[in-house]
Write a structure and sequence with these properties.
mainly alpha, globular
Length: about 575
C-alpha cells in the first residue's frame, strides 16, 4: 500500500510541476521577455542619450567636470536672453492666435449646418502633410524682398518674428483643429434643450454650455501648440533672419561652432518649458471627466441661416489662406529662377543637376518612413498590449507606462543632440549605428512614440473586458488571444499608427538634422540645405515632393481603413 502511494505521488507531482511550468512559459515568460526588451530599448534609445546630454552640459571641451560654469557662461550672453525672449513671445502669441482660429473652425465643423464640411475639414488639416519648412519657403515667395505680395506687410520685412509667427500659425493650425474638433464632437443635447427651455440667448448658451464643455480640449490645445511652437526649428531657420530662438541656437552651437557643451546647455534650457507644458497637460487630463453617459443624447445642430452663413465664410477664408500658401509653394517650385525668370519649368525637380545628392534624399525619406511605420507600429502596439493587458509584473508595467509618455516632453532637436553624445562615442558598442538609416528610423520611432502608444491604449481599452476573462477561464494562452482576437479587432488603430509614423517621418527635420550621413540624408534636411545654398526653387520642389508623398499615403489609407473597419469592426454594431 505504501509503495503504491509513493508511486502515485511520484506520478502526480511531476504533472503539477509541468502544468505550472507550462502556464509560466506560455504567458509570464513571454510577458517577461517583452517587458525586458521594452525596458532595454527605452534605456538604450531614450534614457541613456538624455543622460549623456545632461553630462555633456556640465563638462568642458576636454570632458572635464565644470559644474554649472557652462550655464553661467551661456546665460551671461545678451543674445541668449534675446533668443529666450523671442521664444516665449512666439510661444504665447502664436498659441493664442492658433487656438482662437482653430476653435472657430472646429465650432463651424461641429456646431453648424454649413455646406461642404468634408471639404473644409480636409483643407483645414492639409498643412499637417507638409514639413514646417514649406510654409516658410512659401512666405518668402509671397512676402520676401522680391515677394509678389510684399506690399501687404506695410513695408515691414517678413524675415524675423513676423515671418516666424506666420509660418508657425500655418503649420500648427491643423494640430489645434484636430484636438478641438475631437473635444467638441460629442456634447449632450439635453444641456442645449434645457438652455432653450429657459429662454437662454444663443450667446449666453455658448458661454455656459459650449465653452465649459470644450474647456479641457482648449487647455490641452494651448499646451500642445505652445510646445510645438517653442521647439520648432524649420520655420525659424528659413525665415527667422537675425531673430534667433532657442531651437536655432542649438543648431548654430552644434553645426556652426561645434560647441557641443553649449548646445547641450541650450537643449536643457529648451527642455524645461517643454516638460512644464507636458506636466500641465497630464494634470489637465487627470482632471478631465466624461460629459457623456449612457443617458446622454448626442447633440445635432439645427439649421440657422445667419450662423451657418458666418461659419461658411469663416471656413472659406481660412481654407483660401491654406490654398494660397500651399499653392504658392507649388508655383515657386515651377518657376525657373525667382523672381527674375518666372517661366514655368520642371527644372527645379531635376535634383540630379541641382544637388550632389540628387534624388537620394527623397528615396531615403521614403525608406525611413516605411521602416518607421512597420517597426514602429509593431513595437508600439505590442508594448502597449504588454503594459495594458499583462497579467503579471504590475510594478514594472506601471513604470513603463510612465516612461512611454516621456518622449512627448522631449523636443526632437534635444533628442537628436542626445543621440550625438551617446552614439557618436567610440567607447559605445552601438557606435556603428551612428549615421545609419537604422538610427534615423529608431530616432523617429522614439520621437513620436507617445502618440502611437496612447492610440494603442485607446483601442485596447475599447475591447470588452469579458474577452480577457473568458480566455483566462478556458486557459487560452494570452499570446494566442493576442493574435487571434486583439490584433484583428485593433487593425484600424494599427493602420492609423503606421500612417502617423509614416507621415511624420517624411516631414520631420529637427529630430534627424544631426544624425544623417552622406548616404542617409533625408529629404527634409535636403530642403534645408538647398535653401541655405540659395536654391529656393529646388528647396520648394523637394518640400512639395514630401507633401505629395504624404498626401498619396493618406489617399491610400482612406479606402484601406474603410475596408478594415467593415471587416473588423462589425462587433461594435451588435
Amino acid at each position: 500500500m505504501e509503495a503504491n502511494t509513493m508511486t502515485m505521488n511520484t506520478l502526480v507531482l511531476p504533472r503539477k510541476s509541468a502544468s505550472l511550468l507550462d502556464r509560466v512559459s506560455k504567458d509570464n515568460l513571454v510577458l517577461f521577455g517583452l517587458l525586458t526588451l521594452i525596458t532595454t530599448l527605452f534605456a538604450l534609445f531614450l534614457l541613456f542619450p538624455l543622460w549623456s546630454m545632461l553630462k555633456k552640459s556640465v563638462q568642458n571641451a576636454n570632458g572635464e567636470f565644470v559644474g554649472l560654469a557652462n550655464f553661467a557662461d551661456y546665460l551671461s550672453s545678451l543674445g541668449v536672453w534675446a533668443s529666450l525672449s523671442n521664444t516665449l513671445i512666439l510661444g504665447v502669441s502664436v498659441t493664442a492666435i492658433v487656438t482662437l482660429a482653430a476653435f472657430g473652425f472646429a465650432y463651424a465643423l461641429t456646431r453648424s449646418c454649413m455646406p461642404f464640411k468634408g471639404l473644409f475639414k480636409v483643407l483645414g488639416t492639409a498643412p499637417i502633410l507638409a514639413p514646417s519648412l514649406l510654409p516658410a519657403i512659401s512666405l518668402v515667395f509671397l512676402f520676401g524682398n522680391q515677394g509678389i505680395a510684399k506690399s501687404l506687410l506695410g513695408g515691414q520685412s517678413v524675415y524675423g518674428l513676423i515671418g516666424i509667427s506666420m509660418g508657425l500659425i500655418f503649420w500648427t493650425f491643423p494640430h489645434a483643429l484636430m484636438l478641438l474638433t475631437t473635444s467638441m464632437r460629442t456634447s449632450d443635447a439635453r444641456l442645449y434643450e434645457a438652455a432653450k427651455a429657459l429662454n437662454t440667448s444663443p450667446l449666453k448658451t455658448f458661454f455656459i454650455v459650449t465653452l465649459p464643455g470644450a474647456k479641457y480640449g482648449l487647455i490641452s490645445t494651448l499646451i500642445v501648440i505652445f510646445t510645438l511652437v517653442i521647439t520648432d526649428f524649420g520655420v525659424a531657420k528659413v525665415i527667422g533672419g537675425s531673430d534667433n530662438v532657442l531651437a536655432t541656437d542649438i543648431f548654430k552651437q552644434v553645426v556652426g561652432q561645434q560647441n557641443f557643451a553649449m548646445g547641450a546647455v541650450t537643449s536643457i534650457i529648451l527642455l524645461f518649458p517643454a516638460i512644464l507644458a507636458f506636466m500641465a497637460d497630464r494634470w489637465v487630463k487627470k482632471k478631465q471627466k466624461s460629459l457623456i453617459d449612457t443617458r446622454s443624447v448626442v447633440y445635432q445642430p439645427a439649421p440657422n441661416k445667419v450662423r451657418d452663413s458666418v461659419c461658411f465664410l469663416y471656413c472659406a477664408l481660412i481654407s483660401a489662406v491654406v490654398l494660397v500658401v500651399l499653392g504658392m509653394a507649388v508655383y515657386g517650385s515651377l518657376v525657373t529662377f525667382w523672381p527674375w525668370n518666372q517661366t514655368l519649368t520642371l527644372n527645379n525637380y531635376n535634383f540630379a543637376e541641382i544637388s550632389t545628392y540628387g534624388w537620394s534624399p527623397f528615396f531615403n525619406s521614403l525608406e525611413m518612413a516605411f521602416w518607421a511605420a512597420i517597426f514602429g507600429t509593431t513595437l508600439i502596439f505590442t508594448a502597449a498590449y504588454a503594459m495594458e493587458k499583462g497579467r503579471a509584473f504590475a510594478p514594472v508595467r506601471q513604470l513603463l507606462q510612465m516612461v512611454s509618455i516621456l518622449p512627448m516632453a522631449v523636443p526632437g532637436m534635444v533628442l537628436g543632440l542626445g543621440y550625438i553624445f551617446y552614439f557618436n562615442d567610440a567607447a559605445n558598442p552601438l557606435n556603428t549605428l551612428y549615421g545609419s538609416m537604422a538610427l534615423l528610423v529608431i530616432n523617429t520611432i522614439v520621437h513620436y512614440y507617445t502618440v502611437g502608444h496612447m492610440t494603442s491604449l485607446a483601442a485596447l481599452k475599447q475591447l470588452p473586458a469579458e474577452i480577457e476573462a473568458t480566455a483566462a477561464s478556458v486557459k487560452m494562452p494570452q499570446f494566442k488571444l493576442f493574435y487571434k482576437v486583439t490584433l484583428p479587432v485593433c487593425l484600424p488603430a494599427l493602420f492609423d499608427i503606421g500612417m502617423y509614423l509614416f507621415v511624420n517621418a517624411l516631414t520631420t527635420t529637427s529630430a534627424v538634422v544631426f544624425l544623417y550621413s552622406t548616404d542617409t540624408i533625408p529629404a527634409s534636411v535636403s530642403v534645408l540645405n538647398m535653401d541655405d545654398a540659395g536654391q529656393t526653387g529646388a528647396a520648394a520642389a523637394m518640400a512639395v515632393m514630401i507633401m505629395l508623398s504624404a498626401l498619396s499615403a493618406r489617399l491610400i489609407q482612406w479606402p484601406v481603413a474603410k475596408w478594415l473597419g467593415t471587416r473588423t469592426q462589425a462587433w461594435r454594431n451588435r
